[in-house]
Write a structure and sequence with these properties.
The chain starts with 7 loop residues before the first helix and ends in a 15-residue tail after the last helix. 81% of the residues lie in helices and 0% in strands. The chain is built from five helices and no strands. By secondary structure, the chain is mainly alpha-helical. It has a domain of 69 residues. The longest helix has 98 residues. The radius of gyration is 48 Å and the shape is rod-shaped.
């Protein structure tokens, strides 16, 4: 019993076959329209051939062998200098130029969008890097501030210890002088005092 489920690989193959069949059918339709025009002696342009075959001009331009066949057909026609044919050819040229101009404009727009997208990516990458550096520097600064605070406390404690020791030393000197009977005319110098 089949479930009707076709694997993805089979679907791709079926789509490719369908595209190939459609392209082959269009190719035959254009060839048939060329043959009918040749049999009846009608002049053709890309636009009139595309309309007769029921395909787009883009399809014709994508098939070099059909464009060559059209050019050969046009060379065999005696009425190539007919004003309507010249006008149709001029219209084909104008259409082709307009299409080229439009596509070039579209390409320019896409290139601008691509450039803007790349610039935004670079900015974002740079911004992320700057943010990381800022955060790293911020953590480093916070650590240095904490170290500075600790060192300031330690310096204050050491100064207090030095003052206490100087006071003790002054007391000891005074006591020693009194014991030895020396005058106490020695000036007391403390740590950090200017001479």
């Amino acid at each position: 019993m089949t479930t009707g489920h076709t694997p993805a690989k089979g679907n791709a193959a079926a789509l490719a076959r369908a595209r190939a069949q459609t392209s082959a059918r269009k190719h035959q339709d254009v060839a048939a329209a060329l043959k009918v025009a040749a049999d009846r002696g009608h002049s053709l342009t890309v636009s009139t051939l595309a309309a007769a075959a029921g395909v787009s001009r883009q399809y014709l331009y994508s098939q070099p062998d059909l464009v060559d066949a059209l050019r050969r057909h046009q060379q065999t026609q005696t009425g190539l200098d007919d004003p309507p044919l010249r006008a149709a050819r001029a219209a084909d040229l104008i259409n082709a130029h307009e299409t080229i101009k439009r596509l070039k404009g579209h390409i320019r727009e896409l290139n601008l969008k691509l450039d803007a997208g790349l610039a935004a990516q670079l900015e974002l990458r740079d911004e992320k890097r700057l943010r990381q550096l800022y955060e790293q520097r911020g953590q480093e600064i916070d650590r240095l501030i904490a170290n500075n605070t600790d060192l300031s406390r330690t310096v204050a404690q050491l100064r207090e210890t030095v003052r206490t020791l100087e006071d003790d030393l002054t007391i000891e000197r005074t006591a020693l002088r009194q014991l030895t009977g020396q005058p106490s005319n020695v000036t007391s110098i403390r740590f950090g005092d200017a001479p």
